[in-house]
Every structure is written in structure tokens, then in C-alpha cells.
Write a structure and sequence with these properties.
It is a single chain. By secondary structure, this protein is mainly α. About 0% of the residues are buried. It contains 3 helices and no strands.
């Protein structure tokens, strides 16, 4: 069936409608394939996160350093508290 709601009547219209539907189906299959390609999506996400966490020369950003320092302080504090209660 044609996308404009009418039934194609000539062989040329039928062929054009088939070609249009093939293009739509190919586009849909490509979209689904991209969504299901977990390995490639993961690589892109890792590259994105690495780009946000490092400067142009590859060093960690100040926010990353601060976050790591804060996490270290929390872990050391937790260990000290556990030792004190024993």
C-alpha cells in the first residue's frame, strides 16, 4: 500500500512503492542493528566518558582528582571507624 493512502494502480507506481518500502525497511533494520550492537555502543560510551574525565593532554580533570580524593578520604575514614569499634 502506498504511503499516501492510495493503492498504486500502474506497474511503475507499484515498483516505486516497493522501492520506497524497501528503503524504509532497510532504514529500520539499520537502526535496530545499531541499537543491538552492544560492543560498539560500549566502545563509544567508554570513549565519551574518557573524553569527559581527561584533559586534552590525557591527564585527569580536577573534578576527577577531587572525586578520587574524596572517595579515598571516605574509605580511610570507614576503615578507621571499624578499627576503633573492635
Amino acid at each position: 500500500m502506498s504511503t499516501n493512502g492510495t493503492t498504486p494502480s500502474t506497474p511503475e507506481e507499484i515498483e516505486a512503492d516497493i522501492a520506497r518500502q524497501r528503503e524504509q525497511l532497510a532504514s529500520t533494520v539499520n537502526d535496530l542493528q545499531a541499537r543491538l550492537d552492544v560492543k560498539t555502543r560500549t566502545k563509544h560510551k567508554v570513549a565519551e566518558l574518557r573524553g569527559r574525565a581527561t584533559t586534552a593532554d590525557g591527564r585527569p580533570t580536577p573534578q576527577v582528582i577531587g572525586g578520587a580524593a574524596a572517595a579515598l578520604v571516605v574509605v580511610v575514614g570507614f576503615v578507621l571507624l571499624r578499627r576503633r569499634h573492635r
